């Protein structure tokens, strides 16, 4: 793809409507969120690397960043590299033409030389194109990843780096209640605490369960109570 080629992509990837900054609880990550908001407005740092444990909310934040940028009229692209096996590295060609590129789970392509080279080249092109910004996520700092290409590790050290700090249980409860509110659902505190004590405490699992409860509540025309939750989740 030449630099002047239009970007035409057909991918099994979509941005969830409910994964926005409004539905994200920022506890301990306010500086990161402010930086991502700036990137979504075409401002601030041009290269952002964020890392954190699996299911810590990295994907949510990349979705939110792309969604906000799209709402502002910017040309954006989101790609979860966990599905790289079903794609060609050529998909990264020409992305520097866009205003914002969000690449999720970049460490999933480590030890895949052709993919590493493609990401290295993209970083160089973004660096040369002063109008483009890139946000990437990984499970570890760049120097602690398993990339084989030393020059790629060097490029990944460019820009600004943030660690996504895990939320406390009280912050997770607030995040659950905030997400429920965005969906028009009331999550009583006792029900939220019950979920935290009976389920895996990563946000992805908690949010998936909340989505399930939301649908069940709508079908049954019931408010969320502990007995109702026990019945739906077979607890």
Automatic annotation (TrEMBL):
Residues 48-161 form the Chromosomal replication initiator protein DnaA ATPAse domain. The keyword Oxidoreductase does not apply. The keyword Mitochondrion does not apply. Residues 169-233 form the Hda lid domain. SUPFAM superfamilies: P-loop containing nucleoside triphosphate hydrolases (SSF52540). Signal peptide: none annotated. Gene3D superfamilies: 1.10.8.60, P-loop containing nucleotide triphosphate hydrolases. One of its GO terms (biological process) is DNA replication initiation. Pfam families: Bac_DnaA (PF00308), Hda_lid (PF22688). InterPro entries: Chromosome_initiator_DnaA-like, DnaA_dom, Hda, Hda_lid, P-loop_NTPase. It comes from the Bacteria. Keywords: DNA replication. Belongs to the DnaA family. This is DnaA inactivator Hda. It comes from Ferrimonas lipolytica. The gene is hda.
